[in-house]
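Might I ask for a little of your time on a matter of protein folding? What I wish to show you is a protein chain and, alongside it, a tokenised description of its three-dimensional fold. I should value your view on which stretches of the chain appear to form regular backbone elements. You will find the record immediately after this paragraph:
***
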Amino acid sequence: MFEQTFKNIDDVLWKEAGCTTELDYTEQTSWLLFLKYLDDLEGERALEAELKGESYTFIIDKAHQWSVWAAPKGQDGKLDQNHALTGDDLIDYVNRQLFPYLQGFKQRATSPDTLEYKIGEIFSEIKNRFQSGYSLRDALEYIDELRFRSQQEKHELSHLYEAKIKNMGKARRNGGEYYTPRSLIHAMIQMVKPKIGEKLC
């Protein structure tokens, strides 16, 4: 499922004037995936808290949650076309509201060790390269189909993401240096034999 979605997103990005390299493809896919993953994670945590009779404070405020701006749903569970931003409205929202809000986490965070600080740092380093809100809408709809619930889904996603980073290295672009081949990872695990709870440097 993820592999076809990644291909579909690459096809969308290929048509984007602002995205010309594998690095651009990976960067743009990354920030979309991150926000979708965070939204799913926060949804799970909120549900768990509710089942325990506890309250949950979302990291991302309501106005900027994925389910509000990226994929608002109607009663039938399908995309609500009346509330889904597209075209220039979507690009304007992402560039003038969403990114400044996310970048502001760095200043609002209580410490550099918090997730909030890291969110602010990440979004201070990247920029939205989508120029067409119609292309961005297509990419959002592909990303919204993804689910990150099972270990198998998470494993597939990490495997495909590693492949994208590897391609960046082949294209002689930044990011390839972060790719570690699977065979080397397996060899390191066999030698170190890490156990749950241990920290490795």
The CA atoms of residues 56 and 178 lie 35 Å apart.
